[in-house]
Amino acid sequence: MKDNQSIEVTSHISRDFLQNAAYFNTMPKLVWEYVANSLDAAKENETVVVMVDLTSNYVTISDNGIGMSRNDLNNFFKMHGENIRRKRGKRVRGRFGTGKSAAFGLADTLLIDTTQVGLRNVVELTRNDIKQAENGKPFPVKDIAVNQPTDGEDGTKVEIRDFNIRRPNVDQVVTYVERHLSRYKQRALVSINGHECRFQEPLSNLEIKRVPPPDVVKHVGNVKLIIKVSPSPLNEEIKGIDILSHGIWHGTTLAGIENKERANYIFGQIDVPILEDGNWKIPAFDNTRNNTLNLQNPVVAVLVGWLYEELELVRQKLVEKERDRRDLAATKQLEKEADQIARIINDDFALQELELELKRKVAKRSGGKSVSEIIDGAGELWPGGGDEITPWEQTGAQHGSGKRGDEAGEGEEPRPGPTVRPGQKPGARKEIKKGSGKRRRSVFSIEFYNGTDRAERSRYDSETKTIFINSDHPQVSYAFEMGGRKVNARQFREICYEIAAVEYAMVLPHEKVEKDEMYNASDALYDVRETVNRIIRRFMEVVQK
Fold it and tell me: Does the predicted model carry a pTM greater than 0.70?
């Protein structure tokens, strides 16, 4: 570069492209990006249909939208290009044109097959094409079909292949898409692997409506805040106030009370049109699709400050109500019963974990011998010191006493003893060591809550490993009444124990699959049945005392 040459702002397009792709670092985010694009491409006054097919090798997202012309495709692949539908006056989510890079957050190949008014265009882009771009110059997208005449209907199919991750979690994608769909104010049908996505808003036992004071209105406009309170804790995806603008979701917030007691019971929404209509040097939100408002924006700062005041008032009242509830004698009895249920479940879970560990060892040491032949509730068959035939035999010298020398004498540390190999020598059950060092911490907990008679009788929160039992469910409340409204009545205890057993049996396969990749659906079906029978027997031993 010459000393007097003008300095220009430049960009390394391929690096810029892949940097934007890094924002889409989970399968739920990736799939939702293209589902949302399909929703934005809906035809006027027509229900948009989006079909998602997700496997371990690829994902396709197909829609019946307006499709894209050759010119639209060119604009689609323009970095930070203006959204063409927004330019035409339609209110859509996309603003900065970064979505085309989403596929490369987790995969290496993107193919788009789109039809508009009888003309079909198909293009493909790979990670290798992007990386080979010379000196940061624009890189070509491969044409497969260019303005090909077709009788096919308008619409677009996106195919993403060559994943750089292990098998995607379809359930997580479904949950994420369903939650986001709840924030879309249009007719849509989205199906993932044949499952129609439908979000069911959490039940609420309290709804509060608020309008801002005059000094806030002059910044955010005449808006209405709707605050709802759930009877049970909400997970990360659901809790908080959704911030919309003309029906377009831009973020969810608890405005600073996130980590305070009972905050995770609060949800709701507010629509603030000025966030879309305003024009500031500091934008209200960014282009990373992270659904986070920019607190440096003057309107956002005022909005969040007001939300904090309103949400904190609601939270404090919830805390006071919960403290009053805990003072009731019946509540204390319920907590005691919940601890008893949790102890039994955690004892069983500890044994299941032990069995899984032994099963892995057995598979390596005994050529696939069934674990039931080697272990039981007491421990593992081990050679030496017994008369029961084991699948092992000892090798090596016997234990020393811990003292070095030609002759073993007394010492403080035991010297190494024999190891084992497959064989058929007599022995006994190896005892499971007990003590503070081997103690297993509690994993599951049980909690009763008042969820109204419309809510499910129980639910499981995977984040806290808590089984929630709905005291208001007709089956539970009826048992409580029939037991004379006594927590220790057998009718009430039996139904609560049965509910906990079923919920735990449904959860256990999910816990096992995290630790054992070979675990499959047939194992899960067997385990659910076997777990219910096993736990109910243990519960009945307690109830009948």
Answer: no
